Amino acid sequence: MKKTTEFGFGHEAHPLLGHRVRDVASGTEGELMAVVREEVTTHSGPRWTRRAYIRPEAGGRELPTAVGNIEPLETT
């Protein structure tokens, strides 16, 4: 795993933090609020994953997705 900068509580630096992004899995568009390392439980035991949290443009709850699912939106 490549070295990342940690902000505490599992939060990591990411070049798209604070920018408009799209979740390619769901089509959700919004602002990337956080990238977090989280431990998740699986049938074979716990493992670590990286999740991106996107705040939808219409507001509401931040939605999680895999970090690999985010892409930047073009600015106009």
Summarize the structure.
The protein is mainly β. Helices cover 0% and strands 55% of the residues.
What can you tell me about this protein's structure?
The protein is mainly beta and 76 residues long. The chain has one domain (6-72). The termini are far apart. The strands form 2 sheets. It has a 5-stranded antiparallel sheet with strand order 6-5-4-3-7, with no helix packed on it. The model has no long low-confidence stretch (mean pLDDT 88). The protein has no helices and 7 strands. The protein is elongated, with a radius of gyration of 13 Å.
List the main descriptive attributes of the protein structure presented here.
single chain; 76 residues; mainly beta; two-stranded antiparallel sheet; 7 strands; 0% helix; 55% strand; elongated
Helices and strands in order:
Layout: E1 6-8, E2 11-12, E3 20-23, E4 29-42, E5 45-56, E6 63-66, E7 70-72
Antiparallel strand pairs: 1-2, 3-4, 3-7, 4-5, 5-6
Between the first and last Cα atoms, what is the distance in angstroms? 35 Å
Number of domains: 1
Rounded mean pLDDT score = 88
What shape does the CA trace take?
elongated
Rounded to the nearest angstrom, the radius of gyration is 13 Å
Major sheet description: 5 strands, antiparallel
Which structural class matches the secondary elements?
Answer: mainly beta
N-to-C series of helices and strands: EEEEEEE
The percent of residues in helical segments reads under 10%
The number of strands is: 7
Approximate strand percentage: over 45%
The strand order across the widest sheet is 6-5-4-3-7
Low-confidence blocks of residues: none
